[in-house]
Sequence to fold (85 residues):
Amino acid sequence: MSIDKGKKIMAALQSAVVNHEAETYALLRRVCPDCHTFRLVKVYTARRIFGTDEVRNPRWMLCRECYQGMVGAFDNGNWTSVGVN
Fold:
């Protein structure tokens, strides 16, 4: 095996491991720390890890169970009166 082929294999392996770890971490962060239900994803963005590997980076919505007074956070961007005093 040549050095170049070995480097390509190691780069592919590193990319696979980094992506798997990032997905696992994101799944664990999706659970609300207060009520332990899954939170919805607002949007996925892309981030670079180690300057080379690009992974999906989710942004979470507030938990519907814990933040019921935050109506505007759950109506797809059409903000309404929240009614919080």
User: Anything to note?
Assistant: The first helix runs from residue 3 to 30. Residues 3-74 form one domain.
